[in-house]
Design a protein that fits this description.
Largest sheet: 6 strands, mixed
Low-confidence stretches: 1-27, 399-407
Strand order of the largest sheet: 9-10-11-14-15-18
Structural class: alpha+beta
Mean pLDDT: 88
Distance between the termini: 115 Å
Radius of gyration: 28 Å
Oligomer: single chain
Number of helices: 11
């Protein structure tokens, strides 16, 4: 009996253990599914908050109260389901920017958290694959430039290629993590590449080149804070016989205050140069009020400004004002025609909305949006622009041989 009793006790203990374990096992089995459902719900909630913030901001703050004729309620009905169904930031911001594209406004754009982090880190050492891309009219991305010494340059990536799959600007580039991206060349050929990011220093925003006798070339990639101060320092004590070339061909714009500061380097103080009109606000006259650094008066030196398709926003407003005032000869290729005045708004997930808040008209009444700036001397290639500018300053007749006057 003693042995039998011990067996019964052992059997009962095992059954009890099994019963105790069974509920635990049953509770653990659906845990991954529950976690996935929770993650999906959180993702959907984030998508909704970000999309609704963008939609509401446009309706309330866009410079044109008619929203360029777009039925904004219908846009919400069409694009919100796609945004809510997005499984990652790439899909979410593709849906948001698809909706913003209806405005037909190059400034209306939403940057994902990854794209914003990259923008905010552009002035410090960081991992890069070495391409600068811009959105195209169909919502894709086109390579605008390839950085020398980068993984993309070593792989043979060329300006003009398109992103065809894999990485997009809505994804982070991390040190030590291979970036897989499909490029489509201009003939439609596929280049499936694996690029290892390299830690590279930031490209200088402002560069002064005095290598050519009698010419000072000032290049700026953006109208970033400090541009006017830098210009004033470079132009201070410049001999009047030295010609100045301002290169804005790779300049995507920036702060309006810095544009005014640059104009003050060459135009009289308080000179009217443009009109600004905002939503529900009276038209405002813009003048050269910002100082050109420590420069006490505008310089008299001859001036040429280089522009091209990548010149946008403030990099169009500035040459337009200098052209209309007769202060500079404009050389290169027509600009993009993206000149609306925009401001940024933080989004709930860490992204950023850039939205046009005001229209811009030149002092003579020309609206540059969608039209751009047409150079006085148009060159066949970007490489020929600098030589054409120097020739235009030295001898207008010689400039005609290097480039061609506008029609």
């Amino acid at each position: 009996m003693k042995v039998r009793r011990r067996t019964d006790v052992l059997r009962a203990a095992l059954i009890g253990a099994a019963l105790l374990c069974a509920p635990v096992a049953n509770a653990q089995q659906p845990a991954p599914a529950a976690a996935s459902a929770a993650a999906d719900a959180q993702r959907r909630g984030t998508n909704a908050r970000v999309f609704d913030r963008v939609w509401t901001e446009v309706r309330r703050e866009y410079y044109d109260p008619t929203l360029n004729g777009v039925d904004w309620d219908a846009a919400r009905e069409a694009w919100r389901p796609r945004a809510l169904a997005a499984v990652d930031d790439g899909q979410l911001y593709a849906a948001i920017n698809g909706m913003l594209d209806l405005l037909d406004d190059a400034h209306a754009h939403a940057s994902s958290p990854a794209a914003r982090r990259r923008q905010d880190a552009q002035n410090r050492d960081r991992p890069v694959i070495g391409v600068t891309v811009a959105r195209t009219d169909d919502g894709g991305y086109r390579v605008e430039s390839v950085r020398e010494g980068s993984a993309a340059a070593d792989a043979g990536v060329q300006p003009g290629w398109r992103l065809g799959g894999g990485w997009t600007p809505d994804h982070d580039v991390l040190a030590g993590q291979v970036v897989r991206v499909d490029f489509l060349d201009e003939a439609g050929g596929l280049h499936a590449l694996e690029l290892m990011p390299r830690i590279m220093p930031p490209l200088p925003v402002f560069v002064a080149d005095r290598s050519r006798p009698g010419v000072l070339v000032l290049s700026a990639r953006a109208f970033d804070p400090g541009m006017g101060r830098w210009m004033g320092e470079e132009l201070r004590d410049l001999p009047p016989e030295v010609d100045v070339v301002l290169d804005l061909r790779a300049n995507a714009g920036g702060r309006l205050w810095e544009a005014e500061a640059v104009l003050s380097c060459f135009l009289p103080r308080d000179m009217p140069w443009a009109w600004r009109t905002g939503r529900g606000a009276p038209r405002r006259l813009l003048k050269t009020e910002a100082p050109c650094g420590a420069l006490e008066a505008p310089i008299p030196n001859d001036l040429a400004v280089l522009v091209g398709p990548a010149s946008r926003s403030a990099a169009e407003l500035t040459p337009a004002a200098l052209q209309e005032s007769g202060r500079a000869v404009i050389v290169g290729a027509p600009t993009s025609g993206a000149v609306l005045i925009s401001l940024d708004t933080d989004l709930p997930d860490g992204g950023r909305l850039t939205l046009s808040r005001a229209d811009f008209i030149t002092i003579s009444g020309v609206r540059l949006e969608k039209a751009g700036v047409r150079p006085d001397v148009i060159t066949a290639t970007a490489d020929a622009a600098l030589d054409a500018a120097i020739a235009a300053l030295a001898d207008p007749a010689e400039a005609a041989a290097t480039g061609s006057p506008p029609n």
